[in-house]
Amino acid sequence: MESSCAEKKEPVTEPWREQVVELLYWRDVKTTGVVFGASLLLLLSLTVCSIVSVCSYIGLALLSVTICFRIYKGILQAIQKSDEGHPFKQYLDQEVALSNDTVHKYSDVVLEKLNKTIEELRRLFLVEDLVDSIKFAVLMWILTYVGALFNGLTLLILGLIGAFSCPIIYEKHQAQIDHYLALVNNQIKDVVGKVQAKVPGLKRKAE
């Protein structure tokens, strides 16, 4: 009984999470390069053309490849007098529909995250904790300057580059980065502690 309970409690890592980690850490350089390059090219294209134009161009390019390949295989089969069938038959026979279990599973996850976000925003805007609300206000103030310098698409491009570069950089220089992060964190804690000690009403409820 104990062994069965222990087995049930073991966390199950979802395959898609492992795939994302492998991509971000460049475990397979070719696959990561293709994904990163295609994503970056898509975002850069959106800076020049509208999303409708970009989607149309991608659709036309994909259709051009598949139609040409379909005609090529048809001509080749006619010349060789072979009966190989449709060149994309194995892909056409694959099941692509989402199951009800999958939809419910991820919809529950999204709903849970959404509810937590709404609760956290309510807590911040209604000033349940004065320190956290002030920190949130400072963050919003900083974002006003970020928004003045960059638009949303530029931030997405920078975020994509950071997502594919920061993990591998941190993995290679973890000791040095952790050291400097600890120093910065200690400095921030010291400043926050001094402000809380001098300004009345800023101390947390736990204190």
TrEMBL record:
Membrane topology: Multi-pass membrane protein
Main location class: endoplasmic reticulum
Keyword Endoplasmic reticulum: yes
Transmembrane segments: 34-63, 149-170
Subcellular localization, as worded in the UniProt entry: Endoplasmic reticulum membrane
Organism superkingdom: Eukaryota
Coiled coil: none
InterPro entries according to UniProt: Reticulon (IPR003388), RTN1-4 (IPR046964)
Domain Reticulon: 20-207
Alphabetically ordered keywords of this record: Endoplasmic reticulum, Membrane, Transmembrane, Transmembrane helix
Cited Pfam families: Reticulon
Protein name as it appears in the record: Reticulon
Origin organism lineage: Eukaryota, Metazoa, Chordata, Craniata, Vertebrata
Gene, per the UniProt record: RTN4
